[in-house]
Amino acid sequence: MKTILITGANGTIGKILSSGLQGYRILSHDYKGRLQISGDFSTDKGVEQCAQEVLSHTKHLYAVIHTVGEYYEAGLKETDGDRWRALFQNNVVSAALLAKLLQPEVFISFGVEGLLSGGRLMPAYLSVKCALMSLTKSLALTGMRAHMISPRSVEGSEFMRPGVQVKPKEISDLIDSLLRDTSIKGHIIDIPPPIS
After folding, report:
1. Of 3, 8, 138, 194, whose CB has the highest number of CB atoms within 10 Å?
2. Does the global pTM surpass 0.70?
3. What CA–CA distance (Å, rounded) separates 104 from 35?
4. What is the pLDDT of residue 196?
5. Where are the domains of the chain?
6. Going by C-beta distance under 8 Å and a sequence separation of 6 or more, which residues neighbour residue 87?
7. If we measure between CA atoms, which residue out of 18, 111, 99 comes closest to residue 54?
8. What is the DSSP-derived secondary structure letter of residue 38?
9. What would the pLDDT profile of 102-131 be if each residue is shown by its tens digit?
10. 180-186 — which CB contacts under 8 Å span 24+ positions?
11. How many CB atoms lie within 10 A of CB 20?
């Protein structure tokens, strides 16, 4: 049975995947240490701790599903340098270090709808998600099957926005297909797809 790591398994998407993915041995991560794997991703040491714990459970990790990424909504004037750095660490540096230390076959991260459009109330958050998208594409160029999923708004999430809600099953079904299909890599996927 293939082993996968779900980071942020206590968050909305992490919970969806922990219960919705079948046929895998799942290692669940929570930064507070309430689950099998711990590690505070606000520091490099915390990411390294997570990787060490994972490797104590398995010699070969098939996939990382990286749902960690502190959400932050505020305008440019309200966002100081410390917040920019913290968002970059939690969203991008943590992903890069996990990919480097664990070398999974598959690495799936999460973006946000409207990533390339910018946003008056989320310049820092959208900027770090763009950096994560670039990292995802770079990982795919190394041969890793790396993907980014950008859901609009997830049904049941604490950050629900008006409009179309993505159902939990849509997310777990999409992730399952990406885990099983070895022919695709480097996809940035919006759900639901943008209206053209």
Report:
1. 8
2. yes
3. 21
4. 46
5. 3-191
6. 70, 72, 124, 125, 128
7. 99
8. -
9. 999 999 999 887 666 666 678 898 899 999
10. 182/145, 184/145, 184/147, 185/140, 185/143, 185/144, 185/145, 185/146, 185/147, 186/136, 186/137, 186/140, 186/141, 186/146, 186/147
11. 16
Residue whose pair of structure tokens reads 């398994």 in the numeric block = 9
Look up tokens 């010699």; give the residue. 59
Contact between 100 and 55 under an 8 Å Cβ cutoff? The reply is: no
The token pair that represents 69 in the structure block: 């990424």
For domain 3-191, the question of CATH label 3.40.50.720 is answered with yes
Is residue 69 within 8 Å of 96, Cβ to Cβ?
no
Above 70 in pLDDT, residue 14?
Answer: yes
Q: Could you tell me how many residues make up the chain?
A: 196
Longest Cα–Cα distance in the chain: 49
Q: In Å, what is the CA distance from 144 to each residue of 1, 6, 51, 107, 119?
A: 20, 17, 17, 7, 30
CA distance 52 to 58: 10
Nearest to 85 by CA among 39, 43, 115, 53: 43
Please report the sign of the dihedral spanned by the C-alpha atoms of residue 90, residue 137, residue 123, residue 7.
negative
Mean predicted lDDT score pLDDT of the chain: 87
For residue 193, cis peptide bond before it (omega within 30 degrees of 0): no
Residue whose C-alpha is closest to residue 47's, from 98, 87, 84, 11:
98
Looking at per-residue pLDDT, the higher value among 69 and 61 belongs to 61
- Cβ neighbours of residue 126 closer than 8 Å, sequence gap 6 or more: 112, 114, 115, 118, 119
